Amino acid sequence: MLCWRNIFMPDDFSIVRSSEDSIQIQFTQTICPETNARIQAVCAALEREELSSRLFITETVPSYCALTVYFDEGKTPFEELMNVVQKTARNSAYPAVSKNTYIVHEIPVCYDGDFAPDMKNVCRNAGLSRKEVITLHSAPDYLIYMLGFMPGFPYLGGMDSRLETPRLKTPRTKIPSGSVAIGGSQTGIYPAESPGGWQIIGRTPLKLFDPEKEPSVFFKAGDRIRFVPVDENTFLRLQAEEAARSEEKTHRPLQRYVCTGGI
After folding, report:
1. Separation of alpha carbons 205 and 238, rounded Å
2. 261 pLDDT more than 70
3. What is the CA angle 245-246-251, rounded to 5?
4. Do 36 and 145 meet the contact criterion of CB atoms below 8 Å apart?
5. In this structure, what DSSP letter does residue 99 have?
6. Cβ contacts of 25 within 8 Å, gap of 6 or more
7. Which residue has the higher pLDDT, 216 or 119?
8. Distance CA 155, CA 183 (A)
9. Which residues of 198-231 are buried (b: 16+ CB within 10 A; e: fewer)?
10. Cβ of 118: how many Cβ atoms within 10 Å?
11. E-strand spans in 119-219?
12. Distance CA 144, CA 153 (A)
């Protein structure tokens, strides 16, 4: 990122102009649920309809420890934008994560056979059985810190450290859509067919990214993901149901509900 200069820097965050049409709020450089919750709070405030229409904010993009705010340079009074962003970031305290209400998406995953070509690698590296790997991997509610690499790819926090596995020495040129994989200390889902070097341990039948639907991405930063193990027959049934829903104009998750509590 090209940071021209610091514009505003209180005790725990700074604001830099990162391009002609964007500024970035940089928070404490610690990847944790508390920082993420604060980023989501600031993001929500800036995206309110009355604020965006007045300031012509075109997009807000959260990441691990920062929030980039894009705006229409020709229509936005820059000083007014900075005043609002400063005030919003300053007044957004670190929330108590355990008291948050958040969305949890259940993602069915088949960890069997051809759906999990690297399961043996993960088991060998961790010194665990296949059953133990599946149990550990499907236990947490993973926090989506951000989406990146490709549209809809979730960077998740909360994976058990025992499952950490190095990336493949030679990346694959083609990974099937819906592949669930581990790369180092992270786990994620490939929402579309692509190259990649993460260790594939399963696949979901859900279509997580569709540019023809609104929203085009199944989930958003700040949501949680819970992996639900299914067998191959269930996978194929859900895959057929997903194909039958493909004509819908909006995403309708298999299950989507609100939980309270920490990760």
Report:
1. 6
2. no
3. 75
4. yes
5. G
6. 13, 14, 15, 39, 42, 66, 67, 68, 69, 85, 89
7. 119
8. 11
9. bbbbbbbbbbbbbeebeeebbbbbbbbbebebbe
10. 19
11. 142-147, 154-157, 172-175, 179-183, 186-189, 194-196, 199-203
12. 10
Q: State pTM to two decimals.
A: 0.77
In sequence order, what E strands does the chain have?
6-8, 13-19, 22-27, 57-62, 66-71, 101-110, 142-147, 154-157, 172-175, 179-183, 186-189, 194-196, 199-203, 224-230, 256-260
DSSP state string for 183-196 = EBTEEEE-SS-EEE
Is residue 107 scored above 90 in pLDDT?
A: yes
What's the rounded Cα separation, in Å, for the pair 64 and 36? Answer: 7
3-class DSSP assignment, residue 2: coil
Are the C-beta atoms of 252 and 245 separated by less than 8 Å? Answer: yes
| Cβ atoms within 10 Å of 152's Cβ, excluding its own | 22
Task: Give the pairing of strands 172-175 and 256-260.
Answer: unpaired
What digits encode the pLDDT tens for the residues 87-100? 888 877 555 555 45
Burial of 168 (0-12, 13-18, 19+ CB in 10 A): middle
Q: Report which residue type is found at 4.
A: W
Percentage above 90 pLDDT, the chain:
46
Distances (CA, A) of 107 to 7, 32, 91, 121, 163: 42, 23, 35, 23, 19
Distance (Å, whole) CA 125 – CA 163 = 8
Q: Are 193 and 152 in contact (CB under 8 A)?
A: no
